């Protein structure tokens, strides 16, 4: 498994936790991330950049999802899918990772952690984000 793929898995777990328990301390997040990524500082930095970016941009990310997810409110989305999408939109808009790589990684996370329809759902929404950003 690629190193960044592993980091994204752990980031998803943390974003899911923060979605359900917003009062989780920054220190416990950092400790969990470091432990799960075997203290690999490069991966920990990568993971923390996504976590902090998603947290800082959450309102914009959620607004984007509301606009592009026809007939789906954020509250109706599975928590796993919602957080995969937040992470995907953040990476498409704010990272150096090529958008197609971001979408592929998000779809793989949805296959691993989501429901049966999650991969298609995540792919469809992130494709809309990509196309909306091109116009």
What's the topology here?
Blueprint: H1 3-20, H2 26-36, H3 41-56, H4 58-68, H5 79-94, H6 99-113, H7 118-134
Helix pairs in contact: 1-2, 1-3, 1-5, 3-5, 4-5, 5-6, 5-7, 6-7
What would you note in describing this structure?
The protein has 135 residues and is an all-alpha fold. It has one domain: Orthogonal Bundle (N-utilizing Substance Protein B Homolog, Chain A), CATH 1.10.940. It has helices spanning 3-20, 26-36, 41-56, 58-68, 79-94, 99-113, 118-134. α3 packs across α5. The mean pLDDT is 94.
Structural descriptors:
mainly alpha, N-utilizing Substance Protein B Homolog, Chain A, 7 helices
Concise overview:
The chain is an all-alpha fold and 135 residues long.
Secondary structure: number of strands? 0
Calculate the terminal CA-CA distance, rounded to whole Å.
Answer: 34 Å
Please describe the biggest sheet, giving its number of strands, its sense, and whether it closes into a barrel.
Answer: none
Gross morphology is globular
Question: How is the CATH topology named?
Answer: N-utilizing Substance Protein B Homolog, Chain A
């Amino acid at each position: 498994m690629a190193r960044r793929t592993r980091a994204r898995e752990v980031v998803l777990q943390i974003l899911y936790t923060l979605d359900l328990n917003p009062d989780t301390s920054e220190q416990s997040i950092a400790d969990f991330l470091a432990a799960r990524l075997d203290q690999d500082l490069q991966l920990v930095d990568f993971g923390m950049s996504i976590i902090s970016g998603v947290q800082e941009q959450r309102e914009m990310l959620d607004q984007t999802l509301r606009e592009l997810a026809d007939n789906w409110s954020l509250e109706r989305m599975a928590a796993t899918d919602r957080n995969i999408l937040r992470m995907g939109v953040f990476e498409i808009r704010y990272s150096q990772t090529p958008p197609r790589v971001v979408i592929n990684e998000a779809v793989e996370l949805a296959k691993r952690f989501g429901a049966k329809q999650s991969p298609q759902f995540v792919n469809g929404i992130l494709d809309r984000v990509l196309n909306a950003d091109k116009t």
